[in-house]
């Protein structure tokens, strides 16, 4: 699925702390270091809130999880209205291809969360997968808001 997140660039808030450029994260309610991946994450959060109607209160950013014996951080988790993990999102910098190793990464992260949908996004391409009992099926539509 093609998704042009750059239309939301003017919605982001930026700050300069010396030579460090920062962007405001409305989910964590703090300034975070700006990077290409962080830009994709914040543009996608803005898209979710402005275009998809998600509440910022139902989006978790950069939370730590245990994956096998290693601590990792997921990029985003979207929760249902009942606060059950629903969609796991892995954000990549625009130059990163959304290939099988990237998809395998988000599938590994999901072992702890057991969400219904996985999304991998790099700012211009968005791949969406839905869970079945035995595999993940790629979708063409964005998951419904629940």
Characterization of this structure:
Helix content is 18%, strand content 35%. It is built from two helices and eleven strands, in the order E-E-E-H-E-E-E-E-E-H-E-E-E. The strands form three sheets. The chain has a six-stranded mixed β-sheet. The protein has a three-stranded antiparallel β-sheet with strand order 1-2-3, covered by helices on one side.
Which percent range describes the beta-strand content? 25-35%
Number of helices: 2
Number of domains: 1
Q: Which structural class is indicated by helix and strand composition?
A: alpha+beta
CATH fold assignment: tt1808, chain A
Judging by the overall fold, what is the CATH architecture?
Alpha-Beta Complex
Q: What characterizes the major β-sheet?
A: 6 strands, mixed
Radius of gyration: 15 Å
Summarize the helix and strand pattern as letters. Answer: EEEHEEEEEHEEE
Q: Could you list the spans in which at least 5 consecutive residues all have pLDDT below 50?
A: none
Report how far the terminal alpha carbons are from each other. Answer: 21 Å
Overall number of strands = 11
Helix fraction bin: 10-25%
Choose one word for the global shape: globular
Question: Mean of the pLDDT scores?
Answer: 91
CATH class call: Alpha Beta
Query: Order of strands across the widest beta sheet?
Result: 4-7-8-9-10-11
